[in-house]
Amino acid sequence: MIVITAELWRQTESSFALYIDTVHEREIRNIKRSRDWDITATYQKNGNLIGIQWRVPELDYRIAKRIENRINKSVHEIKDTTILNTS
What we know:
Layout: E1 6-12, E2 15-21, H1 25-34, E3 38-45, E4 48-57, H2 61-76
C-alpha cells in the first residue's frame, strides 16, 4: 500500500496543485496563516476531512515543493528503535 501524504502537480500553465493529508495539522495551519493560496478541494471519507488541496501560483512553486518534500521525508524516515528483551 502506497501512502501519499503530500503531492504537488501542475494544474494549469500558471498554477500548481498541492495536496496534504490532514494528519499534518501544523503544516496546514502554517499554510493558512502565511500563504494566500486558494483551497480548491477538500477530501472526505466517512464524513471526516482527510485531505486539503490548494491552488499554488507558479511563483510559489519552490515554497510548495519544499513543503511537499518536508512532509514526505518526515513520513518515510526510518526510525531506529531498540527492542529490549525483558524475559
